[in-house]
Amino acid sequence: MESTGKKKPRPRRLFTPQFKTGTVGLCRRGDRSVGQAAKDSGLTGTAVRDWVRQAQADAGERDGLTSSEREELTALRRENRRLREDVEVLKRATAFFATETR
Asked: What pTM did the predictor assign?
């Protein structure tokens, strides 16, 4: 079997809020650098860096959306998508019944 040369994406791992808070706390207190905290936890530096940025935004130390704002935005986008699908179904139903009643 030939290899296509593409790597399989890593499965998405989920972490508890306590784990994230602990890792971010190490970085923010200065006990560990982001790179060292990531290495110690078996994570990528990017993941830990993103967690630190989000914690700073939540604390008002950095511009950006807070976690609650992100959750609300995600929920609103999901609802918007569902409503657009509902409108599309209603348009099709209206067109169907309009041609059938003629």
From this structure: 0.69
Burial 70-96 (b: 16+ CB within 10 A, else e): eeeeeeeeeeeeeeeeeeeeeeeeeee
Residues in Cβ contact with 40 at an 8 Å cutoff, skipping those fewer than 6 apart: 32
Domain spans of the chain, in order of start: 14-64, 65-102
Angle, alpha carbons 51-63-27 (nearest 5°): 30
The string of pLDDT tens digits covering residues 73-101 is 999 999 999 999 999 999 999 999 998 77
Please state the rounded mean pLDDT for residues 56-75: 95
The pair of structure tokens assigned to 59 is 């604390």
CA–CA separation, 92 and 85 (whole Å)? 11
- Distance between the two ends of the chain, CA-based, in angstroms? 60
Q: Mean pLDDT across the stretch 8-14?
A: 85
Architecture of the domain defined by 14-64: Orthogonal Bundle (1.10)
